[in-house]
């Protein structure tokens, strides 16, 4: 049996200018431009194998070893569009284009962190299913030998995931074409431009049921007056300013805009009716700590940003990782085993500066389990094709849940 | 020794359209109109005696039995303005106008609830000192026989307190005069217009250090883009709509605007840099509960509103108090003694509706002490002159701390 397959490893990204709201729900055309850093795949990534064969009797998908239904309209839209583009390029035969597709996707963060964390961690509550659509698109595009931009296809899987098509810092521009063809991701700088940039992800304990970002966005568009002002005035100015800051490696400006935009995104959530509340007391406690350490240092050591969930993502420079982590550890103490608590890049944690431990109005968090764990990572490259495959020679998952 | 004195009892108010930001810090001229309900003095009030005498050697002030410094510029401004107005009216002799003033103020909520609660409860973090300036102004105006509007003087003591000069529902209009003379409070309807209106104040446990509303407002004016849009567009529309709703006794509309405006005020706080966060997880949990019971009932049972602190104030109609309180008690259980926990008007708490106890995604709050106590009150009248005095015949407090 002939099986043609491609496997890719794809990164996640953390937005510094947030995407919130669509002008077209079906085509996933965003209300405003957004911008993110792509994280290194060493510490968080998804691996996806896509395969086609004349013997496959139907399209099938397995996520983390469990078969899922393929009747999701977003996935169907992506597969259809990939095939249409492939047909136009003429690199596959019409027969091959008729073959059914098998998709198998696994993520290391999910395996490492429990089933629901990735959703909240990186893409909020868009399900891993939708993420996998994006991961599949990259692999499918390779398999079907598609040239040119594929972020417009990936976008239809999971909006913000389309920025993961490139490494470094990436913008997703809204475009002006009503059919969404120019709503695409573009790389601003590769990862090598700002090699000192680091990211700490503080995974916050939380048990509340959350509003999915898809329905939260819809609700904001319908009810938030402030969202209109954000889209019309604030985001365009910030996109220009933060792009300049990234090009100049001006961390102070980058950090300030990052924090302001995160705050404004959550402000719009609160202005929504009923409100969409994603940050919790621990999230706000971390933000307050970051403002405090920046004030005491007399310069900006770190910037926080929060997606549609309580976890804090800190952007900071390599030289400041030890002291920021020391402050986090001092004010959010943990009793979890060190090997389980710290993940990703190694780091030597210095002791917390005396002046910080003595700050009035900043007390150690009373609960030793406010943070579940911390991932230390950096900016990395976009998706990569790898040789190891998740499907066996029959096109079935090597590993089942 | 001749001592002329006046004692007044003055109410507190809870805004439904929030005041946030000034165009003139010194004159306390607000960025936008605001609107509040005045609460009945039976359950929360401050009593203030002001006295003048030829024998008083200097101006003095006692708050809750403790002498405080009189060098606060707001208080000095108020006393000066009262005397100027009195001089113009000619009802006191020039000699009497030269006499020094003694002010003594006590509040029942503070005595009942611990020193810091009233600040957060009613006027956020404006101190009781500033509140007392307002209370003093009313009594001083009576003592000095001032005619006409005195809210413009009271405003200079504590901005939002000026609305407490009237009972019922009261608006504070920004005015257009740069000197603030037309930035005054006006009654929309007296308490008798909507006698079914009730207020539940859920006092939320909290230990965080807060940003004072004075400095929070300044910071918002300097850094929040969204505040501009709120002031220019959202508040004027809401003032018109909620006034109509109050006149028509249209609770659904009144409640929706109240909740939206509270949310928007906190959204602006979050959009401020660094952010001003006043609500906590319990506050958001209460808001979520209110949305849920309203949804299940198919109509609006209650509206929440939050000032610059975590306490929830619920506006609701008399007929719905038992079921709303039942829901609050079920989802925020307490182990405090009933007599200490429930304050104000009596109420029979019905059992929580079965369909509510079974709502998915709505769990009982894990901490039995999330709420400190609950005040049940209603809309009441403005300040009243009473005969009982807080000062003895020497003009000194009868009760010292």
UniProtKB/TrEMBL annotation, chains A, B:
It comes from the Eukaryota. Keywords: ATP-binding, Cholesterol biosynthesis, Cholesterol metabolism, Lipid biosynthesis, Lipid metabolism, Lyase, Membrane, Nucleotide-binding, Steroid biosynthesis, Steroid metabolism, Sterol biosynthesis, Sterol metabolism, Transmembrane, Transmembrane helix. Residues 199-386 form the Mvd1 C-terminal domain. GO terms for molecular function: ATP binding; diphosphomevalonate decarboxylase activity. It catalyses: (R)-5-diphosphomevalonate + ATP = isopentenyl diphosphate + ADP + phosphate + CO2. The chain crosses the membrane at residues 121-141. InterPro entries: GHMP_kinase_C_sf, Mev_decarb, Mev_diP_decarb, MVD-like_N, Mvd1_C, Ribosomal_Su5_D2-typ_SF, Ribsml_uS5_D2-typ_fold_subgr. Catalyzes the ATP dependent decarboxylation of (R)-5-diphosphomevalonate to form isopentenyl diphosphate (IPP). Functions in the mevalonate (MVA) pathway leading to isopentenyl diphosphate (IPP), a key precursor for the biosynthesis of isoprenoids and sterol synthesis. Belongs to the diphosphomevalonate decarboxylase family. This is Diphosphomevalonate decarboxylase. It comes from Orchesella cincta (Springtail).
């Amino acid at each position: 049996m002939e099986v043609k397959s491609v496997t890719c490893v794809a990164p996640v990204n953390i937005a510094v200018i947030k995407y919130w709201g669509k002008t077209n729900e079906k085509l996933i055309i965003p209300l405003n431009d957004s911008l993110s850093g792509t994280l290194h795949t060493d510490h968080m990534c998804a691996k996806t194998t896509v395969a086609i064969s004349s013997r496959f009797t139907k399209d099938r998908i397995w996520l983390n070893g469990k078969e899922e239904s393929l009747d999701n309209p977003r996935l169907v839209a992506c597969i259809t569009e990939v095939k249409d583009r492939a047909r136009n390029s003429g690199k596959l035969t019409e027969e091959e284009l008729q073959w059914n597709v098998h998709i198998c996707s696994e993520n290391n963060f999910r395996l490492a962190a429990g089933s629901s964390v990735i959703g909240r961690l990186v893409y909020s509550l868009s399900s891993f299913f939708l993420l996998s659509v994006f991961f599949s698109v990259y692999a499918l595009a390779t398999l079907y030998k598609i040239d040119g931009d594929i972020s417009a296809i990936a976008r239809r899987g999971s909006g913000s995931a389309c920025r993961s098509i490139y490494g470094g810092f990436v913008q997703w521009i809204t475009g002006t074409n009503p059919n969404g063809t120019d709503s695409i991701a573009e790389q601003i700088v590769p990862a090598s431009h700002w090699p000192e940039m680091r990211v700490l992800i503080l995974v916050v304990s939380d048990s509340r049921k959350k509003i999915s970002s898809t329905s939260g966005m819809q609700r904001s568009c319908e009810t938030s007056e402030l969202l209109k002002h954000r889209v019309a005035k604030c985001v365009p100015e910030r996109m220009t300013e933060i792009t300049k800051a990234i090009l100049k490696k001006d961390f102070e400006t980058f950090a300030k805009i990052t924090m302001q935009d995160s705050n404004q995104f959550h402000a719009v959530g609160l202005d929504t009716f009923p409100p969409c509340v994603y940050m919790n007391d621990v999230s706000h406690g971390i933000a307050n700590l970051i403002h405090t350490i920046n004030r005491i240092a007399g310069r900006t050591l770190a910037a926080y940003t929060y997606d549609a969930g309580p976890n804090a993502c800190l952007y900071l420079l390599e030289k400041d990782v030890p002291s920021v982590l020391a402050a986090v550890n001092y004010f959010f103490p943990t009793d979890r085993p060190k090997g389980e608590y710290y993940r990703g890049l190694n780091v030597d944690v210095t002791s917390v500066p005396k002046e910080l431990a003595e700050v009035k109005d900043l007390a150690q968090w009373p609960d030793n389990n406010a943070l579940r764990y911390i991932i230390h990572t950096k900016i990395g490259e976009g998706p990569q094709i790898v040789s190891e495959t998740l499907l066996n020679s029959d096109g079935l998952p090597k590993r089942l849940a």
